[in-house]
Amino acid sequence: MHDITDETFDQLISRAMGEMPERYIEHLNNVVITYADEPTPEQAHKLRLRGDQLLLGLYEGIPLPQRGAGYNLVLPDKITLFKYPIVAISHDEASFYRQIKHTLWHEIAHYYGLNHDQIHAIEARWHVLGSLPLQQNEAR
Ligand SMILES: [Zn+2]
């Protein structure tokens, strides 16, 4: 699990995006999806990350519900997936891919304006249903 190349990571992200339900993807506008090894010191500082906290992904931008009529010529939002932290919590390739997918979903939820309480409520429902995020019996 420690020799994931950037190429592989990039491919898995593209695959995960391809498997994302259409209704999550069709309204993505002016969003760039990218990756990095780990958060920059500036990102870690801004989020007040403690040394023992792993940040898997980050959404930066203007969430869709906040975009008004004056939203144009604006730099794209950015969703970044962090390779090292995702590797650190994955015990095999399948769980690595699942984490990528879950992290993407989480950051896209922020794009749609969901906060962590709302995101965690949805995740809790998945838990009750015994289903993993984005599988066929995904909760709505
Ligand atoms: Zn979040």
List keywords for this structure.
140 residues; alpha+beta; Zincin-like; three-stranded mixed β-sheet; 11% strand; binds zinc ion
What does this structure look like?
With 140 residues, the protein is α+β, with helices and mostly antiparallel strands. It has one domain (6-129): Zincin-like (2-Layer Sandwich). 45% of the residues lie in helices and 11% in strands. The protein has 6 helices and 3 strands, in the order ααβαββααα. It has a 3-stranded mixed β-sheet. Helix 1 (6-19) packs across helix 5 (93-111). The N and C termini lie far apart (32 Å). 21% of the residues are buried. Residues 134-140 have low confidence and may be disordered. Zinc ion (ZN) is lined by residues 106, 110, 116.
State the share of residues found in helices, binned by percent: 40-55%
Please tally the β strands and state the result: 3
How much of the polypeptide forms β-strand, as a percent range?
A: 5-15%
Q: Tell me, rounded to a whole number, the average pLDDT.
A: 88
Low-confidence regions: 134-140
User: What's the CATH first level?
Assistant: Alpha Beta
